[in-house]
Amino acid sequence: MDPVKTPLGKMLLEEITPVVMVLRTPLVEESCLKNSLSFIEMLSPFCDFNNIDVPVRTSSDQPYRLQKFKLRLFYESDIKQPNIMVAKERLKQVITEAGEKDRSDLSTDPPDISNVLESSKSEISPSWFEIFNKELVRTVSFSEHEAFDHPVACVSVVSSKDEQPINKFVDLFNTNKLPSLLNDGAMDPKILKHYVLVHDNKDGPSEKATKILTEMKNTFGFNGCHLLCINSSQDEQIEHQDNPWAPYKFDSSPSQHLGRYLNIYDFNEIKDLIQELSSKHIIPYMEQKVRVLNQQVSATRKGFRNQIKNLWWRKGKEDTPDSSNGSMYTYSSVESQIRVLGDYAFMLGDYELALSNYRLVSTDYKIDKAWKCYAGVQEMMGLTYFMLDQSRKEAEYCMENAFNTYLKLGSSGRQNATRCGLWWIEMLKTKDQFKEAASVYFRICSEELLHSAVMLEQASYCYLLSQPPMLHKYGFHLVLSGDRYKKCDQIKHAIRTYRNAVSVYKGTPWSYIKDHVHFHIGQCYGFLGMYDVGVTHMLEVLACSHQSKATQELFLRDFLQIVQKAGKTFEVLRLQLPVINISSLKIDFEDHRTYASPGSTSVKESVWCSLEEEMIPSLPTARTNWLELQSKLLPKYKESNICVAGEAIKIAIEFKNPLEIPISISSVSLICELSATSDETNSDVSCSTSGIGNNEEHKNLREIISDTSSFSLSEVNISLGGGEAYLVQLTVTPKVEGILNIVGVRWNLSGSVVGFYSFGANYGKKKIAKGRRKAKQSPGNCLKFMVIKSLPKLEGFIRALPEKAYAGHLQHLVLELRNQSEFSVKNLKMKTSHPRFLNIGKQEDLDLEFPACLEKKTNVSPPANPKIASNGVFLFPEDLSVQGENLLLWPLWFRAAVPGNISLQVVIYYEMGDLSSGMRYRTLRMHYNLQVLPSLDVSFKISPYPSRLQEFLVHMDIVNKTDSESIQVNQLSTIGSQWEISLLQPIDAIFPSQSLIAGQAFSCFFVLKSCRKSSSTEESTSSLFPHIGSNVSLVPDGSKGAPFDTSNSPLADFHDCERLQHGISNQEAENSVDFILISRPLKNNAQPGVSDAHHVFSHHACHCRQEYTKLLIIISVYSTASTSPVSWVVDAPRTRHHDFSTTSFCEINFRMTIYNSSNARASIVMKTLDSTSISDQLRDETSGNQVGWHDVSLAKDNKMESDALRNHVRKSLLPESVSAFIWSGSSSTRVQLKPLSTTEIPLQICVFSPGIYDLSNYVLNWNLQPVDDHEKVGERIQSSGTSLGYPCYLTVLPSD
Asked: Which residue numbers delimit the TPPC8 second Ig-like domain (predicted)?
């Protein structure tokens, strides 16, 4: 690329050009100011020639044509080094004006980084940078060590109205107002002079001016004088479409008409003047001076001899002190002449000649330690290399060398270093070395903030233009620049840089710098009064949980200040403070299912469905779930959630404060829409969302919020501490029928900002506690409800239900039901999930006094059980209805059955009294959480009583498992009329302490006796009093009160539940015994004998098939049954003494008692067997059930063990070869036994020698016969069988 066409080439051709000094009289300025222009401003547009086409010959004889040429005009008063403060003000003015002229819309969204990358280079960088850089370069104009700013010519201008014009010309150049460069000897005063006479045509004809021109030519020479006529427009002002003076008039305003009196003739005259001055005077003058100076330099400095001479002459100057400026050289010195030669050659385009002279004088300056002059020459060498388009490396080396040398000079070279850096940067940009250019921008940043801001911003664009783009550095330098702009009150520039930085960090994890940018840009918009945009950016930093507490306070405080300054309440869609946890969204509503408490909604739907399965109306189809049932009962609402007018829909959603500082949230409420039409298209206006700042969505939300007449909303005020999360409970209650949409939630932050959150596309993410629909239902319908007309609704709770209780705790409760509607409900049903814990009482139990109601009454009548279906559903009286203010109270019994955490559910079904309602029935769901603590660990062991039929020993072990409670054991009862229980020892002897302290154990023995009667009698008693049994008091006689009645409700009912829990049938319980242990906690440990009269514990033990069973609290089952209905015991002496010397044999009499435990007649044949043939006879006998005096609780196992033991004894004690004894009397006896009756058979044996004898060699054959012919023997009892005798040992000793 041609260097002349590059930005740097154009800048050099504009800034390093000949300077013309202008001297004028006041009348000249007066005439020019009629056009709102000074004399120089009037001529400036015509001083730039793009194609002057002038032949030039400098050092060589071969001329070249100069095309691009420009003159720089300055008044004599301006030819001086600019004042630093004035220069800074000028730079600040340029920046301020650029900000004011910036036409970009600050309220629009920041540009997207992808669009920025696609922009051209000219579009990326602001255009005013070029103006700023030129002004920055001009701050070091007219330096003594540089010649390109020294005037080449002087133009003296006098008005034709001036008196004695010729004298004026002379006086202008001889005044003391000439530049200091001329007076101080830094510049040759012998420069080209040109004389111009200005005539204002508004002052009259130009005849006088012509005469003066003739006199001027006679005085100053013919070629150096010129007449310029201006203001030729006499009649009217001229409007110039393309005003050529606008770029040169920095402080112009649209009201000023620049050049209003200058017409085309004036234009031509000005052009001719400048053209002639340039081509016929200045260029030839510079050309001639270059040739003269080149000859002088060649004669004195060029050539080997002159170079050696110069080095010898400068020998020893290395020890001279450094010079920080160029004042050590005058215009007549050889060094100054060489520098002038180089600068003139550069301005005339002879870059080779310029470079050779710069090289020549560079060595001199370096030896003389004239570092500023040296740096200036190095700078020009680098520029010359660039214009020659030669060594790029040499050009950059010279620029860096000059730059570093300027910096070494300190403050005196800082501005020159800045100019050098700018030119160096443009040189790098030309070669697309943007990264290197950015580093130079950073190096020329000064301590002056505004200057640094501009440099950093330009550096950022260099990083953007690098290949590949360095986006992070681009954004970071923009932020640095924006910070400095903001500190210098250049707010618009700060906004521009911050806005560009926003596009870089958008979507990146760099949260800290994003917060910094949004916070400061929000402040800047606040300074400009653009509060809406400022709030938008400040909103981005509110949820800055990663920031420190102090920073969070700063962000929130400044945000609220901007809001307050705006003087209005802001409404913000998706306000980030607090954070809305959409995943926590939970919806509670009631259709045909209603809930007594919020905790009821947390229970799984499957649990409720299992309870309601047998309660809801049956349909003529196969079993269906509640979803299908709902659609069949309410077919037109098949695809919608159903709610009832006047009943609240509850929404729970979590608000979280991400900050460490507390925040205040008020007026939290739902955003809802209720349309009276069933057209769903009218109710979907708010279902779409496109994120923050969606104006259409915001508009829709405002329209929805404005109409709340058809429903009522709850409002919540909360204060969230640092990091606190709070589950906000909100409700909406529709008042009329229609379609209700729950759109979102709104809140007020610190009383200044209203936040909106539209659930929108997040509908499918929430949890719906009730009313969940089919999977095919669209997510948008989850927050849409069909509102039907008002229905009756039962409200209920259980009074005084404890949250914590000890196992076995028994309490009287009351169920309270209320219906606020004017329409009644009927056909009430009730079912509980844990009948062992909650039992439904009789209506007459409502006013009972507890626990006195548990005591046994003298006049006992058969109990009237509540009406409970086989599936456990309690049916309230059919004529019962609940309506209006009528309160229904129903008694309940509570018992803590087992320890642990219990979830208790209760469902009440009821039907609508108004048959025209859309729903036929509703259910009330009640839920309670109970904690049951361990109390007594009770275990029982049952053993047969020796030598007694149908009597057993019961061993009871009790351990107090509570932590601190003392418990008094009051009563032990058996269930059923076939058992009697009594203490083996007096209670005072075995339990003197009367109570069990925490951790104490206690054991006690009882005698259990079977009292079974005939089948008819027992059935009659059992049908009337199925739970009647015997009781034994475990308290001293002095403390005894009325015993507890275990045969009536509630103890009997809870005992039935325990039986059902273990699947025990009545047949299985025929030969089993059940226990109920009653205890009471003591009032305090200081009075161990005083129990708490208001608390009763009941511990239930039911049928069990093991001899020993241990349960933690309550449930054990004990069996006394055998597989054979016939049992017997042999009552024989254990020892007999006989004198065999006197009598050879001994007759021993004993008896056998036989008991029929069945409900049938038993025919029994008892056969005795001789010991000599016992083995053969036993083999001949058919196998059967062997029953006798044995451990009845382990009948089968004992049979097998007894057989083995018997055989072992026979083999060891009674060899077959020895006749042990013989049965005397009848060898076979037949008896007939009635049901549940006993008989005795006398037996006799003869013993012939002393020894130990086993009296088990007999068998019992039995056969059961029904009492009536049409009856059958029970399925569990064998109708016939054979039982072998069991060991019974008799010891016969000889008498003394």
From this structure: 808-924
